[in-house]
Automatic annotation (TrEMBL):
Signal sequence region: none
SUPFAM superfamilies: Phosphoglycerate mutase-like (SSF53254)
Name of the featured protein: Phosphoglycerate mutase-like protein AT74
CDD domains with a match to the protein in the record: HP_PGM_like
Length: 295
């Protein structure tokens, strides 16, 4: 009896990873079309344009085709995380028109993946000058007056990722191992870039080179055979180069398709070399070791 209970307990604890984690930027908003909208409407209330709604419906169709394998995968399911902003919730609503509700395991509004805070109402000319200063200072560490830096967004997205992993570890969102679970995170450009930075251990310098996602553009992280996620399964080298990934970063994505996460440090010598000099030299000379001075 005790053995059965132990076996059931171990089975319940077994972690089942989502097949894909997909980051989606919202559709075109009124603020994307006319930046003066931010001076009259609170950022979180900025709506989609008609074009943005059409973009979102098209993205929903593409996402359905992707996660269903164009109809070849019968047991796929989705779980949505969405930023609380009007434009992201509207994007989700339009995407949802392409997905049967029986396929949706759940949805959660998640404040930690909201847009970077640029302050309250944004005076257009002042914001133009502020953004010019940001380019000189550096996009990651520059904090908007009364707002946030990308580093601040990194902290809250990191907190969200910890919660996400806890839900995965405890099987809170993946009830049936036979089903292909897809997590779709509908957020904003900078929050999505920061999410990828945190997940793949990209440095601040690497972040600074990244380009923003287009409206309703998405990044697909798919689980590889080695148990790690990779962008290279669904995206080409050319796409990743356009996003700002370096050749080393692209090679890392390819390695993650089959690589074992435990071997990552041994594989990514280019990453370690960005922190250390003469990493390849082996110091076996006893005379070079630190020693305490004799009294």
């Amino acid at each position: 009896m005790q053995e059965n209970n132990h076996s059931n307990h171990q089975s319940a604890k077994k972690k089942v990873l989502p097949k894909r984690i997909i980051l989606v930027r919202h559709g075109e908003s009124e603020g994307n079309l006319d930046t003066s909208a931010y001076s009259k409407i609170p950022d979180y209330k900025i709506p989609l344009t008609e074009g943005g709604r059409a973009q979102s419906r098209l993205a929903g169709s593409h996402l359905r085709d992707l996660i269903s394998g164009n109809g070849s995968c019968p047991d796929w399911r989705v779980y949505f995380y969405v930023s609380p902003y009007e434009r992201t919730r509207s994007t989700l609503r339009e995407i949802g028109k392409s997905i049967s509700k029986k396929r949706v395991i759940g949805v959660r509004e998640e404040c930690r993946i909201r847009e970077q805070d640029f302050g309250n109402f944004q005076v257009e000319e002042r914001m133009k000058a502020i953004k010019e200063t940001r380019e000189k200072f550096g996009r990651f560490f520059y904090r908007f007056p009364e707002g946030e830096s990308a580093a601040d967004v990194f902290d809250r997205v990191s907190s969200f990722l910890e919660s996400l992993w806890r839900d995965i570890d405890l099987n809170r969102i993946h009830k049936h191992p036979s089903q292909d679970l897809n997590l779709i995170i509908i957020s904003h450009g900078l929050a999505s870039r920061v999410f990828l930075m945190k997940w793949f251990k990209w440095t601040v310098d690497q972040f600074e080179r990244l380009n923003n996602l287009g409206n309703c553009e998405f990044r697909v992280m798919e689980l590889g055979r080695g148990g790690d996620y990779s962008l290279a399964i669904n995206h080409t080298d050319e796409e990743m180069m356009e996003w700002g990934l370096s050749p080393d970063m692209i090679q890392d994505q390819k390695w993650r398709i089959t690589g074992n996460k435990a071997d990552w440090n041994n594989h990514c010598t280019w990453y370690l070399k960005s922190f250390f000099d003469d990493l390849d030299s082996e110091d076996d000379d006893e005379s070079n070791r630190f020693s305490f001075p004799k009294k």
